[in-house]
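Hello,

Following up on my earlier ticket. Below are the two sequence lines again, exactly as submitted.
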Amino acid sequence: MHKYRSHTCGELRKSHAGETIRLSGWVNRIRDHGGLLFIDLRDHYGITQIVVNPDSEFFPLAETIRSEWVVTVTGTVIERVAAAINPKMDTGEIEIGITGLEIQSAAKELALPVFGELDYPEDTRLKYRFLDLRRERIHNNIVRRSQIISSMRKRMVNEGFTEYQTPILTASSPEGARDFLVPARMHPGKYYALPQAPQQFKQLAMVAGFDRYFQIAPCFRDEDPRADRALEFYQLDIEMSFVTQEDIFQTIEPVLRGIFEEFADGKSVTKTFPRIPYLEAMLKYGSDKPDLRNPIEIVDVTDQFGDDSVSFKAFKGIVASGGSVRAIPAPGAASKPRSFFDKMNDWARKDMGAAGLGYIIFDEIDGEIVGRGPIAKFIPAEIQAQMVAKAGINGGDALFFAAGKTSTAATLAGAARDRIGHQLGLIDETKFELCWIVDFPMYEFDEKEDKLDFSHNPFSMPQGGLEALENQDPLDILGYQYDIVCNGFELSSGAVRNHKPEIMYKAFELVGYDKAFVDENFGGMIRAFEYGAPPHGGLAPGIDRIVMLLCGEENLREVTMFAMNQQAEDLLMGAPANVSPKQLRELHVRSVMPEVKKEDKKAD
RNA sequence: GGGGAUGUAGCUCAGUUGGUUAGAGUGUCGGCCUGUCACGCCGAAGGUCGCGGGUUCGAGUCCCGUCAUCCUCGCCA
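Thanks for your patience. The regenerated structure is below:
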């Protein structure tokens, strides 16, 4: 018999009764009846109950065993009597009568109990990740992640894509996120950068004639992490040649829908992804990553508040100065207490930094819809009726109002839409609602820098091409740029690329970068485009976020085997860490520590 | 860097208007227990109430500062 096991802990059934077998695993749980001892033995595959009788020579040893020890058990498969069957366990119809026991590895008192579904502090979980990962939920998540990635590969290959690798040590590129840098030992003072994405490489692969590229690509961005954002993450990176935006949609939508359907676990998945222009998304949902499970749709009521008959000065002033007012329906909110509306207002002021949220509550009285609330008296019934009609609401509903500069009002309205949707329980948790957001603007005005900037991806093809760049107001130019959004999370970003050098130079010129800058920073790609570049495009769905959604989790760490905390520290491995002076010398690097605040300065 | 929440036994938590010796569950240790599967029963050990200062006759509780963790804003083309 094999030294450690003949079967796994999830394998044995009634049909094995009478066989002599050997199992190895962790002790999940012990029930000591004094005269009779039960051990639940767990491995990756399942749990099997071991029985030890007091007349067994191994009884004294078995009594010393504790949770999470690793043991090897030899024994006979016994069919349980009817009363002893545990229908909750796959192996619940049998148990193992022990004839041999070997302790492979004992365990200290646990810093983190494996058994049970309790929540534990993140730092403890991360420090003892090897224990945490033994726990059923996260263990299953990690396995599911592997299955999802495996399915992605299979689907991509079936669509005629080929997987290629691109460098991890590459050149820093300006714009975008902060790069992780790696000192170049052989080139004092110079640095490699870890790729934020293999963007330029996959485009170069297209120029090289490979077509239909994909990669499970590791990406690195040195920015502060969030629940849905990590320093290092994986993209299903995709690029195709000789394609229009429509070709890309037709190719990728089935892949992504297929992945979601395969792992949705009973939740419904959007059949045909709606395509929502960016401007429409910003108006109706106040976000470029709308949660379409939320039925609320925002409407613009700037004209209503601008009407001469309205005397609500705060909003009239905003309208007069070119701002906007957006109305957010709150279905059924009329029955909510005053505190519901006050709290929304407090939230807008405190969390959103807004002046506040106006609101009107609408009641149906004798067949007529009548508004009430602090600002209702400033708005004539006729104007209120226009708002009701525009928002498509009824008696018993309310309208919140977000006012300000158009972009500010839109964003505030979007945040309010999310909040109202959640608080009124309008979010259908049984759905994956996917959509394309299309027609992103090429440029936006950067208020802080007081200059024009790329709003999305500088390598995208502007709609209208060179002609648009030369003749249109840059802020009106749209790009062949698109996102995939699911349940309020941006899953993917992509574009038809700009493969013409003259359009590239012009696109950069508009944001203040001259030819020399482009040549210096994107020299490889520009050069490539001068030697026969195919029209091409692609996108890059974020694998971690997809897995997170499909596992029903709200944090990437729940689907990441070895994760960092929010301070970007690996508490298990102790990264980042000091290195020796010798290592630094070899790299021609010296640390310059930040200045310490005065009161902290203490001799130690 | 800003905002919010949290911090009490190995772990999960309770702890009232400030008032005697800070509790429970679980785990650990000891005893009992032959059909449990969150086994049960009895007992014991286990605490810098995150840390520092202040108010007070008296602080886990109130105040100030600070640290840590998470969420979030900035940031993430």
